[in-house]
Amino acid sequence: MTEAMKITLSTAPADARWGDKAAYSINDEGITLHLNGKDDLGLIQRAARKIDGQGLKHVQLAGEGWDVEKSWAFWQGYRAPKGTRKVEWAQLNDADQKELDNRLKIIDWVRNTINAPAEELGPEQLASRAVDLLCDVACDQVSYRITKGEDLREQNYMGIHTVGRGSERPPVLLALDYNPTGNPEAPVFAALVGKGITFDSGGYSMKQSAFMDSMKSDMGGAATITGALAFAITRGLNKRVKLYLCCADNMVSGNAFKLGDIIKYRNGKTVEVMNTDAEGRLVLADGLIDASAQKTELIIDCATLTGAAKTALGNDYHALFSFDDGLVNSLMASAAQENEPFWRLPLAEFHRNQLPSNFAELNNTSNASFPAGASTAAGFLSHFVENYHQGWLHVDCSATYRKAAVEQWSAGATGLGVRAIANLLTSK
To answer: Nearest Cα to 263, choosing from 151, 360, 148?
Structure first.
């Protein structure tokens, strides 16, 4: 094992030979990061990315100033999906060390799961991994049911079944119950729904290669919401929460769904399929129907749902939609506390009506007359939430995955959103 490179923090500027605004300098003792008090966490993360880029795979966070947030910022930038890295962490108090350990376990699980090749992670494997994670943090308080393949059709989960039937790997619904009360009659505080499309070819509305090559990450919503529940449990969540993961491959075959097909859902809604690449909303609809039936105080769904949200916000913010202003404010406050980026996009009553169909109640995609694609997708989902005006948040997970490295992040999954949603769950 190579000797660790020491990384220290300083509030003094770098020596002039490094430049007036140098973020770091190097001497015989190691590397010093020069904080300026303006964006110290961002500076640390960007410096860590550069340190990794120099091939330094064994570091020691040394000296004063390494609290849990600065240590985590370093890891966010230093970590990458290829190769191994070792960090010798600075000494923290017991509570901060536990917090850091839980972030390393759970948010790294989210990033690893999203980065996994689709060949390794089908619908059943995604559901199993989620169960394993939650059992790891609270097994005695977790029960679950996995429904797959033709059983979904027989139980009238027609969205998940329709989207997933074209793949040789059967679609799956994971329904998981975290009940720390021990009372089977305890009310359910929150229902969480995740889009788990383990590979999205676009179906017969097939994607170009440039848009398909990252579609192993189309289950990012399911991984994020699972991680959020697990992380909230480590922070002391003591209310009953149910988790629904809607998992499927969207593939092309003789059995795949087609344009013009009509799906009839358990709540009576009918949907005409006019774009098989707008499949995420079709599977989420089943999960939202189940979530609504729980009569919860809070429903949150997470999905890598639209390219429109990513066009608006890039990979830098998660897009947030809701009719409930108070709940939006709560989530935004949680995001600010956790230093995670969310941005609210419009969702109005008229967006619910911008999905016209000549043959069904809804079309699964808006047309050129209604170009606000992220808002109309949220409007579609609202048709499957019983009380959509209150207690429902939809997160279009734009910041989940990066196809290429940038100044602050490696290529691949970011894990962003886990902490903010966990904060919301534990603060209400």
So the answer is: 360
Of the residues 281, 310, 402, 419, only one is catalytic, namely: 281
Cα 44 to Cα 390: distance, rounded to the nearest angstrom: 39
**Is 153 one of the catalytic residues?**
no
For residue 132, what are its two tokens? 């394993």
Which residues, 6 or more positions from 405, have their beta carbon under 8 angstroms from its beta carbon?
49, 80, 411
Annotated active-site residue in 50, 85, 98, 207: 207
The Cα angle at residue 129 between residues 125 and 131, in degrees rounded to 5:
120
207 is catalytic: yes
How would you write the pLDDT of the chain (428 residues) with one tens digit per residue? Answer: 568 999 999 999 888 888 878 899 998 899 999 999 899 999 999 999 999 999 999 999 999 999 999 999 999 999 999 999 999 999 999 999 999 999 999 999 999 999 999 999 999 999 999 999 999 999 899 999 999 999 999 999 999 999 999 999 999 999 999 999 999 999 999 999 999 999 999 999 999 999 999 999 999 999 999 999 999 999 999 999 999 999 999 999 999 999 999 999 999 999 999 999 999 999 999 999 999 999 999 999 999 999 999 999 999 999 999 999 999 999 999 999 999 999 999 999 999 999 999 999 999 998 878 888 999 999 999 999 999 999 999 999 999 999 999 999 999 999 999 999 999 999 98
pTM: 0.97
Residues near 15 by beta carbon (within 8 Å), at least 6 away in sequence: 25
Q: What is the DSSP annotation of 100-144?
A: HHHHHHHHHHHHHHHHS-TTT--HHHHHHHHHHHHHHHHGGGEEE
First to last CA, the chain: 46
The CA–CA distances, whole Å, from 129 to 38, 59, 106, 134 equal: 39, 30, 12, 9
- Burial level of 69, CB count in 10 A (0-12/13-18/19+)? middle
Residue 260, classified by CB atoms within 10 Å of its CB into exposed (0-12), middle (13-18) or buried (19+), is exposed
Phi-psi region of 155 (alpha: psi -120 to 50; beta: other; left: phi over 0): alpha
Under 8 Å between Cβ of 126 and 216: no
